[in-house]
Amino acid sequence: MAMEMRLPVARKPLSERLGRDTKKHLVVPGDTITTDTAFMRGHGTYMGEEKLIASVAGSVERVNKLICVKALKTRYIGEVGDIVVGRITERRRSAEDELAMRGFLQEGDLISAEVQAVFSDGAVSLHTRSLKYGKLGQGVLVQVSPSLVKRQKTHFHDLPCGASVILGNNGFIWIYPTPEHKEEEAGGFVANLEPVSLADREVISRLRNCIVSLVTQRMMLYDTSILYCYEASLPHQIKDILKPEIMEEIVMETRQRLLEQEG
Amino acid sequence: MASVALSEAEKVYIMHGVQEDLRVDGRGCEDYRCVEVETDVVSNTSGSARVKLGHTDILVGVKAEMGTPKLEKPNEGYLEFFVDCSANATPDFEGRGGDDLGTEIANTLYRIFNNKSSVDLKTLCISPREHCWVLYVDVLLLECDGNLFDAISIAVKAALFNTRIPRVRVLEDEEGSKDIELSDDPYDCIRLSVENVPCIVTLCKIGYRHVVDATLQEEACSLASLLVSVTSKGVVTCLRKVGKGSLDPESIFEMMETSKRVGKVLHASLQSVLHKEESLGPKRQKVGFLG
């Protein structure tokens, strides 16, 4: 059995660890961004008393004459075409609904879907009109901040390490064993409840810990970053990945590899 | 208790994993998550401790005040427990939602300390039948991520270790009236011996096996749990079963053996961390809440 107790260690600011020279202009709601009225107001700002004030907490971005504040942590804002993973919390209790849905979807089930429309109050309507969407079977759910999920062409990835992952735009990440036959994808409405093999479980647990480490170090989540992090974590035991020093080491390595790949 | 909703397939996945000794985060059935302990975080208390177990965050403060001993135990002081489930922990605790859980935890703490050897209450006596020290132990739940009882018991033990009670003398003058004199030196204090203070080990039964330090998701898959309060020497002071499901006697026996084993390691780790922190002395950098 393993038991580790330690004294807490103060976290170092991120810019210090990365050795960045340019510091981002961080603001909190109510901070004055600029008193120059020539700028155009973008998202996250408002005009008050002859000066531009921030309405969210984040970093200031400037494109020519447009100033906006990109929030560090936001609630999910739906857009048409987004892939989301969601849990059913409540159902309409009408008679037709019961007859139609009973046996297919119950409260507590997880589904993957696509955003069809967005209402003015922020609510979204979803559809599962494709075989790749639908009820999700066995696997692990990780909840992260929606701002950390990078927008890509596809959010369904079959990783070469042996598991598949769905990166929901709403911050819900679903990790599941890659189905053997192509017809039985993550969709459909009948869940496969057979035991998953130990090798697949190890891959899934390792991926889950890698995603948690990336999120703790505020890195963007996409298939390449997750894969690099997985490879960097292989020398360590799965349960050790969540230890603070090992987490830092693995994410540092991932960051370096990603920078090399870009440059 | 705060709980998460899980789909049937997720529960099946977790249960099969536990049978194979590989939990969702890669731990084995008898592994704890990483624990962070820090004492002396609240300045206006006699002793305090903060424990983080995964995302479960507990703050305990101990205040020593003078009171009258209980009638049936005139030579002893006593402990009073109060648990506050902060609304920050989970929306379920808003308003009076956390009161039930708070009373349950406080009652469990009373039970595990309700024996002669956990804390030497005679050291808390100032003058028999008249004055004694009462230790008010306040527990604050800041964040809830499963395994509350274990984290709370570790924090209570650390806070009691950190408690410094001022040394007092009772002076009697010729007329017989008594006066209590506080020592001039603010560092002259008595400390409690926490050698026999027990810690709770929660074992959740999932399928045919039991796990230690369950997360919220694992607690949702378990129908029955056993709370075992065990001291550093492996002595069980209190046993409590929670949950709707049933436990057969063989499972209970196995779980008790596991808890004794796990408990010894838990106490040894906690002792070494507390001594290490103390050896760093007053110059150690306190991390506190903004670290």
From TrEMBL, chain A:
Membrane-spanning parts: none
Exosome complex component N-terminal domain boundaries: 26-63
Stretches assigned to the RRP4 S1 domain: 90-116
Domain K Homology: 139-179
Keyword Transmembrane carried by entry: no
Annotated InterPro entries: Exosome_cplx_N_dom, Exosome_RNA_bind1/RRP40/RRP4, KH_dom_type_1, KH_dom_type_1_sf, NA-bd_OB-fold, S1_RRP4
Domain of life: Eukaryota
Pfam families: ECR1_N, KH_6, S1_RRP4
GO BP annotations listed: CUT catabolic process; exonucleolytic trimming to generate mature 3'-end of 5.8S rRNA from tricistronic rRNA transcript (SSU-rRNA, 5.8S rRNA, LSU-rRNA); nuclear polyadenylation-dependent rRNA catabolic process; poly(A)-dependent snoRNA 3'-end processing; TRAMP-dependent tRNA surveillance pathway; U4 snRNA 3'-end processing
Chief subcellular location: nucleus
Keywords: Exosome, RNA-binding, rRNA processing
Cell location: Nucleus
GO CC, alphabetical: cytoplasmic exosome (RNase complex); nuclear exosome (RNase complex)
Gene3D superfamilies: 2.40.50.100, Nucleic acid-binding proteins (2.40.50.140)
Listed GO MF terms: RNA binding
Coiled coil: none
Family: Belongs to the RRP4 family.
Annotated protein name in UniProt: Exosome component 2
From TrEMBL, chain B:
Any coiled-coil regions, as ranges: none
A biological process from GO: U4 snRNA 3'-end processing
Keyword annotations of the record: Acetylation, Cytoplasm, Exosome, Nucleus, RNA-binding, rRNA processing
Compartments where found: Cytoplasm; Nucleus, Nucleolus
A Pfam cross-reference name: RNase_PH_C
Keyword Amino-acid biosynthesis: no
GO cellular component, one term: nucleolus
Exoribonuclease phosphorolytic domain boundaries: 32-166, 196-261
InterPro entries linked: ExoRNase_PH_dom1, ExoRNase_PH_dom2, ExoRNase_PH_dom2_sf, Exosome_comp_Rrp42_subfam, PNPase/RNase_PH_dom_sf, Ribosomal_Su5_D2-typ_SF
Major location category of this protein: cytoplasm
Gene Ontology MF annotations: mRNA 3'-UTR AU-rich region binding
Entry annotated with the keyword RNA-binding: yes
Homology family: Belongs to the RNase PH family.
Oligomeric form and interacting partners: Component of the RNA exosome core complex (Exo-9), composed of EXOSC1, EXOSC2, EXOSC3, EXOSC4, EXOSC5, EXOSC6, EXOSC7, EXOSC8 and EXOSC9; within the complex interacts with EXOSC2 and EXOSC4. The catalytically inactive RNA exosome core complex (Exo-9) associates with the catalytic subunit EXOSC10/RRP6. Exo-9 may associate with DIS3 to form the nucleolar exosome complex, or DIS3L to form the cytoplasmic exosome complex. Exo-9 is formed by a hexameric base ring consisting of the heterodimers EXOSC4-EXOSC9, EXOSC5-EXOSC8 and EXOSC6-EXOSC7, and a cap ring consisting of EXOSC1, EXOSC2 and EXOSC3.
PANTHER family xref list: EXOSOME COMPLEX COMPONENT RRP42 (PTHR11097:SF8), EXOSOME COMPLEX EXONUCLEASE RIBOSOMAL RNA PROCESSING PROTEIN (PTHR11097)
Protein name as it appears in the record: Exosome component 7
